Amino acid sequence: MALYVQKFGGTSVGSIERIEAVAEKVKGFREQGHDVVVVVSAMSGETNRLIALANEIQSRPDPREMDTLVSTGEQVTIALLSMALKARGVDASSYTGAQVRILTDRVHTKARIQDIETSRMRADLDQGRVVVVAGFQGVDEDGNITTLGRGGSDTTGVALAAALKADECQIYTDVDGVYTTDPRVVEGARRLEKITFEEMLEMASLGSKVLQIRAVEFAGKYKVPLRVLSSFEDGPGTLITIEDDAAVEKPVISGIAFNRDEAKLTVQGVPDIPGVASRILGPISQANIEVDMIVQNIAADKTTDFTFTVHRNDYDKAEQVLQQVKQELGAREVVGNNKIAKVSIVGVGMRSHAGVASKMFDALAAENINIQMISTSEIKVSVVIAEKYLELAVRGLHSAFDLDDSDTVRE
Ligand code: ADP
Ligand code: ASP
Ligand code: MG
């Protein structure tokens, strides 16, 4: 008999009907004799609705009050799911993050878990009860409610699985596993049987929101067996694994991730002298703006153009900061573009194959797509392109790297 932590996302608990379907599923696992801890998200759309309410009052409301507000979404779902379980004769108890005591740091709206008290959950499990825990939330040392960042229920699921040493953490969602790319964008996307933690981490951080990045990090660190499955249909889903079977030939590319949330800024005509990069990026970091890709090149006239990308929400703020920097450095111009997207190919197989990047560039050239920036690491290549070509690029790359589902019939 196993202990499973099962996390159900927003769509999976989006209506009373769906909550009842989740209760049926959990009941099935109980009847097979397994112990189950369920983690739930807010009903779909609820977190956005709550944020919109706050924004009617203020554009940047106090983060502590924001956490008190948005954590209510998950509190509704734990109660409703526990009722649905009890209505089916399955003993269950609901707990908020604070009631479990999921202790976090004090960083409101993106808190990190520091410790999880397992005694109350253990006592319930010993009594044959299903434990239903609110995802996405915790509590700091002083009892303030905190939340873990958007998509944070995945992290709650993995963290509980690690703390309870569960046999598997199962992430139930509205697709039946991790695909070669977002199946809502590429029709021929293929479900992966397995993906390594390392690849999943890259996919998540490069824009595939099927799992929150921190959940993958956590699972990798504590070696939590992690599986993504559909809450609507039965199937094996996708197992996130430690790279074990070295002898097996790996595909060069496992998946394609993309992100529309970026914007790029360039300071043109910067004098080519030591310390310039730090004088440009120092004020950006002081303004709490995270920088992603960076490119710098020297022109014949001994000046450089310095380009970097930021989250699209930070675009206006970054531009203001750079206008000031431009004056101080005697640079020529600040230009920007917030209609860009980043497309990345990811795969551990890249380590042992040459020519992967050039194959990517060929595929984009064949679609007449201009590459604006490039960045690489051992297991990924990312490019920035105009946002309007994003879908064309992803589809083209998906075919070029032979990822298309061979069962998909195309014209
Ligand atoms: P939940 O509410 O269950 O947490 P999310 O919306 O956060 O669900 O994540 C599931 C969604 O992730 C899917 O509906 C899909 O559109 C998207 N997605 C993006 N990239 C991928 C991928 N590579 N594989 C599967 N799903 C992906
Ligand atoms: N409800 C939260 C969100 O929408 C957390 C989650 O669903 O994982 O981001
Ligand atoms: Mg999610």
Automatic annotation (TrEMBL):
Tagged with keyword Repeat: no
Catalytic EC class: transferase
Where substrate binds, per the record, is at: T47, E74
Q: Does the keyword Nucleotide-binding apply?
A: yes
Which Gene3D superfamilies does this one have? Answer: Acetylglutamate kinase-like, VC0802-like
Q: Which residues bind ATP?
A: K7, F8, G9, G10, T173, D174, Y179, R184, K209, V210
Q: Which residues form the ACT domain?
A: 265-339, 345-411
- The protein's superkingdom reads Bacteria
Question: What GO molecular function annotation could you give as one example from this UniProt entry?
Answer: ATP binding
Kindly give the NCBIfam families that the UniProt entry links to this protein.
Answer: asp_kin_monofn (TIGR00656), asp_kinases (TIGR00657), PRK06635.1-2 (NF005154), PRK06635.1-4 (NF005155)
User: In which family does this protein belong, per the annotation?
Assistant: Belongs to the aspartokinase family.
Q: What is this protein called?
A: Aspartokinase
Q: What is the scientific name of the source organism?
A: Marinobacterium stanieri
Lineage at the top is: Bacteria, Pseudomonadati, Pseudomonadota, Gammaproteobacteria, Oceanospirillales
